């Protein structure tokens, strides 16, 4: 029923304590989350290292999964330790050297009132071999579209949680950007400042200073974002956290996305579509090529996640294949 064409090397997934073949259907069509987006999830990567596959910042991802669950008043049916072990085991079960891992907690079948009081919380975890999110753009640079849709505001929802329903807005803007010929979207917030991508944080570089924003600008403060900030400080780069105007973004020397799926991907061109009443205007970011600081950070990050830099081995949880 379900093949793994878009999920390379995925053979098994874990669901509520058991392993199932990838093509096994087991979710009822009247499950609460399917209708209302009442789910929380994580995107996690494991990388090939000399010691076998290593999961990047696994404790932090599991902690955030529980934080997100609390936002939706979920009683998680497993402990953090149990979920950690399942994540490692699903990598081994699928014989993956590197992997993208997706734990999903959701309100399942029970009732379809808006309040899921009779719908139990269930957990599923899958893993597959997933390369660069934007393919060759990871090295060459992405062309983005500044969306007219403003990011959901931090006064409206707890943006520190990865809520399934929030990503409907991400999907809409991501599809719109691609339909217009761009690689990805960029959101402004209600104040008109740069927020984030549909699933990515944003950094800018100006005169050698690295800058990103925080949750007060309606962003999810990503785990990759935190890692890049730490790497930058260790490399002696000046860093700053604060609001970024649209002008800051467009006039920067370098701009790049960060995130689990996208890792570190430069942005080299942008189209401003934030005002639907005005004609889109195209901009080249900096030199129109991947900048030196972006390259330096990406090189260090790639070495860290693959176990090649001892200083960052603290971030790795080996799956023991």
Number of helical elements: 8
CATH topology name of the largest domain, in short, is: D-amino Acid Aminotransferase, Chain A, domain 2
Q: What structural class do helix, strand and pairing data support?
A: alpha+beta
Radius of gyration, taken over Cα atoms and rounded to an integer in Å: 20 Å
Mean pLDDT level: 97
- The percent of residues in helical segments reads 25-40%
The dominant shape is globular
Q: Profile the largest sheet.
A: 8 strands, antiparallel
Low-confidence stretches: none
| Beta strands, count | 16
State the order of secondary-structure elements, H for helix, E for strand: EEHEEEHHEEHEHEEEHEHEEEHE
Termini separation comes to 29 Å
Q: For the record, what CATH class of the largest domain applies? A: Alpha Beta
CATH structural architecture of the largest domain: Alpha-Beta Barrel
What number of domains?
A: 2
The CATH H-level homologous superfamily of the largest domain = D-amino Acid Aminotransferase, subunit A, domain 2
Beta-strand percentage range: 15-25%
């Amino acid at each position: 029923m379900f093949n793994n064409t878009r999920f390379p090397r995925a053979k098994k997934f874990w669901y509520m304590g058991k392993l199932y073949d990838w093509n096994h259907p087991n979710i009822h069509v009247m499950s609460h989350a399917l209708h209302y987006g009442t789910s929380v999830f994580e995107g996690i990567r494991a990388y090939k290292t000399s010691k076998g596959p290593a999961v990047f910042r696994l404790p932090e991802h599991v902690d955030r999964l529980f934080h997100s669950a609390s936002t939706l008043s979920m009683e998680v049916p497993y402990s953090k330790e149990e979920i950690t072990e399942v994540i490692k085991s699903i990598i081994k079960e699928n014989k993956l050297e590197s992997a993208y891992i997706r734990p999903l907690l959701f309100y399942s079948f029970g009732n379809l009132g808006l309040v899921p009081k009779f719908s139990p919380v269930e957990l599923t975890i899958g893993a597959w071999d997933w390369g660069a999110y934007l393919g060759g753009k990871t090295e060459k640079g992405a062309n983005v579209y500044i969306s007219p849709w403003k990011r959901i505001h931090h006064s409206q929802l707890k943006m520190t949680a990865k809520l399934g329903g929030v990503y409907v807005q991400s999907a809409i803007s991501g599809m719109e950007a691609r339909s217009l010929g761009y690689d990805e979207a960029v959101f402004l917030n209600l104040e008109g400042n740069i927020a984030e991508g549909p699933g990515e944080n944003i950094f800018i570089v100006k005169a050698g200073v690295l800058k990103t924003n925080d949750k007060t600008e309606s962003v999810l403060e990503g785990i990759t974002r935190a890692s890049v900030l730490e790497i930058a400080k260790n490399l002696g780069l000046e860093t700053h956290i604060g609001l970024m105007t649209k002008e800051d973004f467009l006039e920067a020397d370098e701009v790049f996305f960060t995130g689990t799926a996208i890792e570190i991907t430069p942005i080299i061109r942008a189209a401003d579509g934030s005002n639907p009443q005005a004609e889109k205007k195209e901009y080249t970011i900096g030199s129109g090529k991947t900048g030196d600081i972006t390259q330096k950070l990406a090189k260090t990050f790639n070495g860290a996640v693959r176990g090649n830099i001892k200083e960052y081995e603290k971030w790795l949880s080996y799956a023991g294949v």
